[in-house]
Amino acid sequence: MRNWSLRLFWVLCLTASCLAACSGKRSVEPSSAMSIRWTLSSTAAQLNDVWCTPQGSIYAVDISGFVYKLDGDDWIEVRTGGYESLYGIWGSSDDDLFAVGTRGVLLHFDGKAWTQTSAGISMNFLEVYGVSPSAVYAVGGRGASDSGLVMRYDGQAWQAVFTQIDVPLRGVWASSVSDVFVVGEQGRIVHWDGRAWTAMNSGTQVRLNDVWGFAPTDVYAAGEGGTILHYDGSTWNLLPTGNFWSLYGIWGRSRDDIFAFGVAGLILHFDGNEWRQMETDHPADVLYEGIGDRSGHVYAVGFAGTALRLRDGKWEHMLGVTSGPLDVALSGYSGIWGTSSANVFAVGQRSIVRYTGQSWKVIGTGGLNDVWGAGADNVFAVGDRGLVMHWDGEQFASRTITSRNLTRVFGISAQTVYAVGDSGLVLRFDGSDWSELERVGDQDLAALWVSPTGTVYVGGYETLLRFNGATWEDVAPANGKYQAIWGSSDSDIFAADWSGMIAHFDGTEWAIMTTATSSPVQNFWGCESGRILGASQFGSDALVVYDGSAWHAGLTLQSNTTGLSDVWVDPECNTIFAVGGFGRILKGTWQ
């Protein structure tokens, strides 16, 4: 490993606690935010709805409460402030967007900020649609077998306009303020004609999930069992599709260009004569909704963060894992490491995924906590109950080393790899086998770093120790629960504890630093350009950056996020990857 300059780039994992200060020590004051462009590289949170504004902007919402905007080929998080799960989105323009969700959440974006309006009731809103900024409808229900509700926004406030129905409502479409269709459970369809709400005979008892139309006499509804209904102005008729998979969304550009989306990644297309299943080379479990843009593209979103785009007659993958069982990618990730921006590994409690420059693929399973490698064909991952996995360039092989949980892995070569875990456990791999070093007490260890000279540093509760190959030495700057340590050399080390303290060691003494966040760091990583990054598992101050003289805010997440668990930067210091809850993997580039 080459010696790095004292100016390092660090990304820190942080939590929502206050930073500790220490008088008499050198302090570096925080500076303004670093300019990093963050995009969503992958997520396990299901995308529930997608919308295209008249300006051509594509927006999507997910079950973890996030709103995303498509920027070229990248999905960018749009800050809402953090709310409940979101299920529907609609907008008359880029500065007039509405999003709805659980527990009565009704959000509005005016081009500058998202604000929440209370519905006054604990209702789960499942869809939103409008015909103008002053005529927007939201529908939902309290439960699978409880009452439904239609709310209308008149440009000033929301108010209930229809409550006389005993089942939840799931979809809404309107051609005008006097022509509104709503569908829901048990085949229910109700219609507003400008004077009254009227129940319509759908001819079915199955749940209807969505509705879309082109005119008052040309409306379609989709639901369970492959059901697609058409309304011709007088009656609803069942259309033959040759499909029995449940459908969740329906949208069309014209009467001879309609799409329906459903279970098992199903996409049906109607060309004006018949419905045909489209070929899609993706493993989506469920697709919930679709929309088209002005360029002729169609977008579909669904389970496990799946986002697809139809371009030039072919569906292409945009977001989510592209292979393997999707259910194993649903939990969060705790560790990330790579050899380049086109070869990155992320691990979590249910899966191992690999990024090869275009998409993430599931390549293994297991309860894993951390990952590190000596090269592209020599990667180690450690996890619960002594699980150690090794990647040889083709596949992962697993073995159990101990009965105790392993939390961190780090090394300096294929012959010098260390892992730490519960009850003071420290393991060493010499290129052929693992062996246990002298126990360092009975406290669980959560931090590990190995210097270029081979000196080992471990941290835990009231523990920060250094191993020189023969003996362990206490080097803690203060009492604390140390959970992160990293450095460029034995005279340039950063350590963080659970209270939020970050300390720097210059080879002689420790100095307590002041950072640009109030959250404790979970992990560090740095690179040769003189920058250091750190990520936070709890709270909204998810990432900070040290440029050699001051800490900067690098990323602030919504208050409803579980934060970040780990961060890694490519050797060229151009691309940042950070992982956290909901299977979220963020990708950052410097601006």
SSE blueprint and pairings:
Layout: E1 10-13, E2 36-42, E3 47-52, E4 58-62, E5 67-71, E6 74-78, E7 86-93, E8 96-101, E9 105-109, E10 114-118, E11 124-132, E12 135-141, E13 148-153, E14 158-162, E15 169-176, E16 179-184, E17 189-192, E18 197-200, E19 208-215, E20 218-223, E21 228-231, E22 236-238, E23 247-254, E24 257-262, E25 267-270, E26 275-277, E27 287-292, E28 298-302, E29 306-311, E30 314-319, E31 333-340, E32 343-348, E33 352-355, E34 360-364, E35 368-375, E36 378-383, E37 387-391, E38 396-400, E39 406-413, E40 416-421, E41 426-429, E42 434-436, E43 445-450, E44 456-460, E45 463-467, E46 472-474, E47 482-489, E48 492-497, E49 502-505, E50 510-513, E51 523-527, E52 531-535, E53 541-546, E54 551-556, E55 564-569, E56 575-580, E57 585-590
Parallel strand pairs: 1-52
Antiparallel strand pairs: 1-53, 2-57, 3-4, 4-5, 5-6, 7-8, 8-9, 9-10, 11-12, 12-13, 13-14, 15-16, 16-17, 17-18, 19-20, 20-21, 21-22, 23-24, 24-25, 25-26, 27-28, 28-29, 29-30, 31-32, 32-33, 33-34, 35-36, 36-37, 37-38, 39-40, 40-41, 41-42, 43-44, 44-45, 45-46, 47-48, 48-49, 49-50, 51-52, 52-53, ...
